[in-house]
Amino acid sequence: MPLDTSKNNQKIPVNPGEVLFIGGKASTSMNILHEGSVRVETILGDTSIVLYSLEGANLTPGIFALLEGTPYPYTIRAKTSCVVSTYVMNQTNAKKTLTSKVSVGVMAVRTLLKEIGELYKRVLSIKGLASKFEQTMDNLGAVYYILNPSIFSDVAPGALITRDENIIDPVMKLIRNNLAGFQEHGGMLPDKPTINFLEEDHGEFFERNYSEAVEWNDAEFHFIRKILSVNPKISQALFEADPTLLQSAAESYVKTYRELFELLSKETNELSEMMNTMFVGENALIEKFNLTLDLFNTGYSTIPSTVLLPVTEWALKKSKSLLDEYKQIFGSPYATIGNSIDKLETKQTELTAKYGHELSAQKNKEETASQGSETIHAGIDTKALKMELLNSASQILNYSQVDPESVKEFSTLMVKLKSFKNPLDPEPDNRKIRRTIAKTYWEVYKKSFSKWLQSGKQAPKAVELMLRYGYFDESLLDEGHIVELVGRLYQGGGNPSAPIHYGTDWLEKIYSREVPTSVDELGQTFFEKLKMDLKDSGIKSEKDIPPDYDTGEARLGSEISSMYEPNVRLTSGNIASHFPILTKYHITIPLEKCFVSKEDVEKALQYILSVDYTAFNREVIYRNEEIGIKSEFVQRSIIPDFILVPSIGPKIMMWQDLSIFRGAGSKESRGRICIPHFVTGDLKTFMLEAIAAFRWELCKNTLGPDWNNVGIPSITADYTDYVQFFKKSKDLSPELKEKISSEFKRFRTDRDKFAYDYSMWIRYEAEGVQRVNRVVRSIFYRHIPFHKNIREKVSSQPAYSELHNRFKNVRTRQHKEFENKYKKYMDASGNLPKELYENLTFYEV
């Protein structure tokens, strides 16, 4: 029986386990807890959960419902023996009491503050578990496809996977759509599943954010909390001076509590849905693996036991771990789980015993491989190599001759970092250690590079591996990784037609002033920073810089800190786990598969240019006084510099659209795109994203203030206009507008939205597969035309025919205008200067 609060001003003793107030019943009293503790619990859907406990004197349990004027959203039960006073009151009277009796008002607000803090912790725990479930399901779904590639009969081996919303089985639909997104974002599935793949965060490929944090930035809440945290006498005096502050604080806290309570309900429902998808019913994800084990046991499956059984063992252990965490949070096991886990455990136990000899042999084989052998691998004497790279960290530190105190701290932190189970763990203490190590590492890198350059590029192999790949400590990599790095170190770079550079070659060009230095993350140039440092010296132009300040060493230091170091960090893809030193924990797919050579960059680039032949085009001014040309705008393709930096990750950075920002030749200068030496994904996809960013920024830079002026048609202006007003477009259906709105939530900027559509344009639309909407297709066909052979191929399709005719008419008119204009510049043989001829050719349809 709940408390009878109809009697005013009563003091009631309550026994442990008794209910004080029932969820769903009206709140008709203000209650003060004098001693003991109470438990606040609720039912969300079919799930019962204890939210938190309130313990101690001078607390007001249930104040939220009274001030909000709603029924109790929870049940309050005595946790221990307690004493409670109740005062008959409604919402209006309660609000008046807060300001008329300041001590009661402070009591109520402090209680709400405590409840909000506890409720927030509960939301975080549920959100964290839901994120773990989501990541586990996404990874297991991908692995299920790797094990059973025939589950999608319309997808040929190695072909692109497209989304399909018509699949009835919800798990199969989830797997298929996930894999489509995985490929679209450059993800590469391993040939066979590994435990590393299952444990890795592939969120950037699955379009997921597995963050366990809850976004909550209530400035007013935190401000009031600070007031309440000061000396009680001070806060009491403040509220007595202005009681309306209490009322405002209470109203704000009631609103915050409601928002958190609704968020709790949402997260709990989503968690339940995920758990049902994973465990409940014949279509559950775990049942897919049960079926796979059945097929394997009866001989219908050709999957090796050494591949399948470790995966199902991982799935079993992970499921049990997640279910245990659920029980800890909710206080009881998941009610509707069924027997899928029990079946998996039974099958796993039987098959592990049956194939134990094969699993043991595989384990021994892996252990032998990890210990290394003394054989010659790929022409490399591994025994001699191990001796040469012994104590690599000491070799590099001695070579660099950095400050001994820095070396001492660096060495201590490296030992500590190597003691962690995973040095790349995003936990704050680990991140702090990595940041401190990274600071010294880059000082070592700079000094080592300078010494290497001045000594005719001669250095110990450990130093050369660091400069090229970010190698540092042989114990942080497997032997196979080191052999792979050394085997690649002295391979020639080929002779690509595009300006593609190894990072060391690029830094050498900076040192020798062959190319200008890059901007930093704030967009500042070497000259601008130097001018700021020497602001009292009267420097107005680069020519005024004193020679002592503008040295090769100074430019090298600037390039490493401004461009090199940030891009090593950014191309890693995950700032929270970033570490500039290459380790085996970075390597999620075989190193040979993610190694990027100059030839790889060239192939990816030519693939894109074979579709988007105007990717690097811009209008520049051509002058030729000898034949009377004072100023003619002509189209020119200027391919940016591609720089391979010593990092590993799933990101390519478009760093600059131009290398010179002012003066003559600025618009004709190359941009800069940084590529990690080891790309953990599809190089072409990441190149597409970087080139999309390049197109966007170059257009903005070229047009200046008119970059988003629809009166001057351009990629940026037309696409920005589409983003802003697509909901009013007559060319898009309500369903499509809703879909676009949902998709846009995934992207932070208009440039990111453009890059995604650009990738769809090049990869799918160029094949005649319609993946962008008709508004975007119209913008892109105008500003990002396909190569001629592709235009001719798609022009027969209804979706493209009108666009093609319009494009053809515009280009034909432009070509005719230039042809007539250029006649006066022809020589006696009827030939035009190369620049004008190329511009005329550009407008040919």
Automatic annotation (TrEMBL):
InterPro entries assigned: cNMP-bd_dom, cNMP-bd_dom_sf, RmlC-like_jellyroll
Question: Which Gene3D superfamilies does the protein's record reference?
Answer: Jelly Rolls (2.60.120.10)
Matches recorded under SUPFAM superfamilies: cAMP-binding domain-like
In terms of Pfam families, this protein maps to: cNMP_binding
The chain positions of domain Cyclic nucleotide-binding read: 16-82
Q: What protein name applies here?
A: Crp/Fnr family transcriptional regulator
Origin organism is Leptospira vanthielii
